[in-house]
Amino acid sequence: MDLWQVKDEAEEAAVSLEGKKAILVPYMREHVPKYHEWMKDPALLLATGSEPLTLDQEYEMHLSWTKDPNKHTFIVLDKELIKGGFLNGEPHIEAMVGDVNIYMNDLDDLQLAEIEIMIAEPKSRGKGLGEDSALMMMAFAVNKYKIQTFRAKIGESNIASLKLFHKLGFKDVSYSEAFKEVTLELQVTDRSFVDLIA
Ligand SMILES: CC(C)(COP(=O)(O)OP(=O)(O)OC[C@H]1O[C@@H](n2cnc3c(N)ncnc32)[C@H](O)[C@@H]1OP(=O)(O)O)[C@@H](O)C(=O)NCCC(=O)NCCS
Asked: Which UniProt keyword terms apply here (predicted)?
């Protein structure tokens, strides 16, 4: 067995990251019902390229993500919605507004990660949480997994996401006519990225 591939779930479960506006906590079992409610929204399914799942399937998906050494998911908490102060290890469902994940899905290049971000709660959009969360996720991925290239695949009509990734310094690298989707990439050695996470 390749030991490098074994995911240290206990270690990862303890990690939470605090930014200016958001706190990223590990995706816990307690988060699944609210996540499942979000993913009934056709607009979110379309924006994230996801299929509708039953609650049981969502629990299975959560388990498989937790065990996959090449996938790392955090739940985004809106700091303004946290009640009674942040407690590490608590799910803080009251402040859960979205998720951000990376997936090292190119087995020939494990230093390339696809990144996805969703701020599902409309009341928490447009407050900087998406940008804050994406930056924290990328800084974490560079430090912990030595990621060199980030890739995002965004539907051509998803203007908010395209603008967010362009703002972060991603450049368009290809377009799929079949999926009506733009692929964007960012190299961590790009000067603009170094400045962003400094
Ligand atoms: C796209 C999304 C992640 C943005 O998150 P957010 O927290 O609302 O965005 P932020 O407040 O951090 O905005 C950061 C930048 O994104 C862009 N942006 C965000 N919302 C925008 C909108 N409605 N229209 C145009 N640009 C927008 C802007 O460039 C903005 O920077 P600015 O405020 O300096 O103009 C969020 O709207 C979302 O989850 N949408 C649905 C799911 C989705 O499309 N996910 C992407 C699949 S990978």
From this structure: Acyltransferase, Transferase
